């Protein structure tokens, strides 16, 4: 059996890539320093996988920002608006072009928007969406994959396995930027470039090449199925010396099993963590020439593998097709897991014994291989660890289980419908048309980060820390008043992360020191670990919301993270259903919402940016998820009076297919990301006649560029053409935590001016 790894975390054990990129963007270092860090990280990760005994070591899985963006650059799918970055500015290189596509470009007399960004299937990783036109042409543009192959071969002394997104999935990940064609119809133009790419890799000495085709685990129409057959037939016909490992993950193949198994490739990878039941169907379908890579180690969670279950799958496969055609692997790239559990020193030993990070998952592959060869002592140690977790008193809270068992439909209903609530709320707050607000967080400056670090090191007392946070909170309240914002936020300076902050105050969670994973670009998050029943022992946000509201006459939103987002952005226990865990979180948030209302907070925002992310990949599975996900949000929000205004926020989501469920959440105000898509997302709300109030984002906070008043006004006018002006709010796409103050201040001041001009054009008065 070959031990096959699909990909490895990029950012480094100490987030070296994040720091190197941000220093480069700030102009503090040059390209040589950035590429030096990238080279060092890749070499370390190749050596680590070599030492772990991995046979098929991936290369080209590393990326400065995003692997889909890497493919767009490699294939020459570069939107025309970026041409001036390298043609009109002396000294700019491919690196500058690459980051301009990811982040936008606003200097040297140029003002170019970034490419759209959205979620990578049902993960919290974001990718840069390829843009296609009817006349789209492709060509080999970048040498990154060839450089990675040569580097990995030199470092490991072995022939590495280049990793690429497959041609069909690459097209399906993209977006048509003009009418009159389907992106999948570009397959005949794209495949010749893949043929050229694969043949060139073969000339470098490549044997195996991994082509990721996750869309094979999705619902496909006939044109998309035909594209798969065409693409891989042409690749097989024109690339005789290369072995293709076709990789699927995040779901089972289901009705696409015969399609995938029938493609002329050398090996097929399937995700047996997400869909173990697919193995029988695949074994019945695959031809005698096809090898099978078994994704038996969870590439998306941090719990120790169940060796008995994995071995049963391995043994079944070996019995059917032989060990020489069997590979063992993680279910997907380890990009979605933290780097190394050995770096964690604060996790209780009992709980740590239940866990495995990326480095340990490579060890699990090796141990599974050795157990299959007869080392049964490893199997017994694994059994004891899993039994310890199952029986631990840390996990179970009878009071929490009783509350969930007793919940009723009334727990998920507001007192009155929106048509009753809206006029009561308008009377209470008296806001103008196009009221302005932000999503919640303000820039976390170096000073704020130093305060938090000093508190953790014991250099500040909690009282000293709180006093400094109070100062920063008052300053941001005053700034918002002076800028003219109508509804304020307290800035969230006391918070490290929108999920981690709450998890630290909820029972059933634990935290890591170095469990970072990449969310997008240099943005890394440290997901909490939900290991047991969840409850709220006390107030979490009331103190800061009450403090902020006491320093202004304008309404200040209480800011909370919703139950589905806390679930999605944590490493979740796998010993009970996700639905049950979410309901536990929902009641904990409900208690906090009620406490905020009692403290006099009249607007409460319960962010749910991950509710679309959690949507099952297959349509037939979605209704059940949407029912319990929406209900959990309603449980968290339904305990307040009609005059209390409930907000929610969602970002980087396609809403067309779930709009009725978004409406069923019954939030009084929803804010969404719309600026990169130029308000396209609003069409779903308009077509549905969305009844409640909505704040479409008018500027992209994931880019450092400052949009003009005219640009934001134009977006507002588009929004007003689609939805009633009296229901529209004005806000950024998302929170401002990751931005710098100069760009934030300039953008928000422009946003306020744009709202004032919109009021003038549609008439003044109360919304």
TrEMBL record:
Gene3D superfamilies: 3.20.20.210. Residues 434-756 form the Cobalamin-independent methionine synthase MetE C-terminal/archaeal domain. CDD domains: CIMS_C_terminal_like (cd03311), CIMS_N_terminal_like (cd03312). Residues 4-317 form the Cobalamin-independent methionine synthase MetE N-terminal domain. 5-methyltetrahydropteroyltri-L-glutamate binds at residues 119, 523-524, 569, 613. The keyword Metal-binding applies. The active site is at 702 (proton donor). Its EC number is 2.1.1.14. L-homocysteine binds at residues 439-441, 492, 607. Its cofactor is Zn(2+). It comes from the Bacteria. It is an enzyme of class 2 (transferase). It catalyses: 5-methyltetrahydropteroyltri-L-glutamate + L-homocysteine = tetrahydropteroyltri-L-glutamate + L-methionine. Pathway: Amino-acid biosynthesis; L-methionine biosynthesis via de novo pathway; L-methionine from L-homocysteine (MetE route): step 1/1. Zn(2+) binds at residues 649, 651, 673, 734. Binds 1 zinc ion per subunit. Keywords: Amino-acid biosynthesis, Metal-binding, Methionine biosynthesis, Methyltransferase, Repeat, Transferase, Zinc. SUPFAM superfamilies: UROD/MetE-like. Catalyzes the transfer of a methyl group from 5-methyltetrahydrofolate to homocysteine resulting in methionine formation. PANTHER family: 5-METHYLTETRAHYDROPTEROYLTRIGLUTAMATE--HOMOCYSTEINE METHYLTRANSFERASE. Belongs to the vitamin-B12 independent methionine synthase family. This is 5-methyltetrahydropteroyltriglutamate--homocysteine methyltransferase. It comes from Compostibacter hankyongensis. The lineage of its organism: Bacteria, Pseudomonadati, Bacteroidota, Chitinophagia, Chitinophagales.
């Amino acid at each position: 059996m070959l031990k096959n790894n699909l990909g490895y975390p990029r950012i480094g054990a100490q987030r070296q890539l994040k720091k190197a990129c941000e220093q480069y963007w700030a102009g503090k270092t040059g390209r040589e320093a950035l590429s030096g860090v990238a080279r060092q990280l890749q070499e370390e990760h190749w050596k680590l996988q070599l030492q772990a005994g991995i046979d098929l070591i991936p290369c080209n899985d590393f990326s400065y920002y995003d692997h889909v963006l890497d493919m767009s650059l490699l294939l020459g799918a570069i939107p025309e608006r970026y041409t001036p970055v390298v043609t009109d500015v002396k000294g700019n290189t491919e690196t500058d072009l690459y980051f301009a596509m990811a982040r936008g470009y606003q200097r040297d007399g140029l003002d170019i928007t970034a490419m759209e960004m959205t979620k990578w299937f049902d993960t919290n990783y974001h990718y840069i969406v390829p843009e296609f036109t009817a006349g789209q042409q492709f060509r080999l543009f970048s040498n990154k994959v060839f450089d990675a192959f040569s580097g990995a071969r030199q470092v490991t002394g072995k022939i590495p396995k280049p990793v690429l997104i497959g041609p069909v999935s690459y097209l399906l990940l993209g977006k048509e930027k003009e009418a009159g064609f389907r992106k999948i119809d570009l397959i005949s133009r794209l495949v010749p470039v893949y043929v050229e790419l694969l043949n060139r890799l073969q000339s470098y000495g490549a044997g195996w090449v991994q082509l990721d085709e996750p869309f094979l685990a999705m619902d496909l129409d006939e044109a998309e199925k035909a594209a798969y057959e065409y693409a891989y037939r042409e690749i097989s016909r024109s690339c005789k010396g290369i072995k293709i490992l076709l990789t699927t993950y995040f779901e089972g193949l289901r009705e696409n099993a015969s399609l995938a198994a029938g493609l002329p490739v050398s090996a097929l990878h399937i995700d047996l963590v997400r869909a173990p039941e697919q193995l029988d169907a695949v074994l019945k379908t695959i031809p005698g020439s096809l090898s099978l890579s078994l994704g038996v180690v969870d590439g998306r969670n941090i719990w120790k593998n169940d060796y008995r279950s994995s071995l049963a799958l391995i043994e079944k496969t070996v019995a059917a097709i032989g060990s020489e055609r069997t590979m063992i692997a993680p279910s997907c790239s380890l990009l979605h897991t933290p780097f190394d559990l050995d770096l964690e020193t604060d996790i209780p030993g009992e709980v740590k014994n239940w866990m495995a990070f990326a480095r340990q998952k490579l060890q699990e592959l090796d141990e599974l291989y050795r157990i299959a060869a007869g080392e049964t002592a490893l199997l017994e140690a694994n059994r004891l660890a899993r039994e310890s977790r199952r029986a631990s008193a840390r996990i179970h809270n009878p009071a929490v289980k009783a509350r969930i068992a007793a919940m009723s439909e009334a727990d998920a209903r507001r007192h009155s419908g929106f048509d009753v609530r809206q006029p009561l709320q308008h009377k209470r707050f008296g806001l103008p048309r196009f009221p302005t607000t932000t999503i919640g967080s303000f820039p976390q400056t170096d000073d704020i980060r130093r305060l938090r670090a000093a508190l953790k090191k014991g250099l500040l007392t909690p009282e000293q820390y709180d006093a400094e946070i109070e100062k920063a909170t008052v300053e941001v309240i005053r700034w918002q008043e002076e800028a003219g914002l109508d509804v304020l936020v307290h800035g969230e300076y006391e918070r490290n992360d929108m999920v981690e902050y709450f998890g630290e105050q909820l029972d059933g969670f634990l935290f890591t020191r170095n469990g970072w994973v990449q969310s997008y670009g240099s943005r890394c998050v440290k997901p909490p670990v939900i290991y047991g029943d969840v409850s709220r022992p006390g107030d979490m946000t009331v103190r800061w919301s009450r403090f902020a509201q006491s320093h202004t006459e304008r309404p200040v939103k209480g800011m909370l993270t919703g139950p589905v987002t806390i679930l999605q952005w944590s490493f979740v226990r796998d010993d009970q259903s996700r639905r049950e865990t979410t309901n536990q979180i929902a009641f904990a948030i409900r208690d906090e919402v009620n406490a905020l209302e009692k403290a006099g907070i009249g607007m409460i925002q319960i962010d749910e940016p991950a509710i679309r992310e959690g949507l099952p990949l297959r349509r037939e599975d979605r209704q059940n998820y949407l029912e319990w996900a929406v209900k959990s949000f309603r449980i968290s929000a339904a305990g307040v009076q009609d005059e209390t205004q409930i907000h929610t926020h969602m970002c980087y989501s396609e809403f067309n297919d779930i709009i009725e469920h978004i409406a069923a959440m019954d939030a009084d105000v929803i804010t969404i990301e719309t600026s990169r898509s130029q308000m396209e997302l609003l069409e779903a709300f308009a077509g549905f006649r969305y009844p409640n109030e909505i704040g479409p984002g008018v500027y992209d906070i994931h880019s450092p560029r400052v949009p003009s008043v005219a640009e934001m006004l134009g977006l507002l006018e588009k929004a007003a053409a689609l939805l009633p002006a009296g229901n529209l709010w004005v806000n950024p796409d998302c929170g401002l935590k990751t931005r710098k103050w100069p760009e934030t201040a300039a953008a928000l001041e422009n946003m306020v001016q744009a709202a004032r001009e919109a009021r003038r054009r549609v008439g003044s008065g109360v919304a």
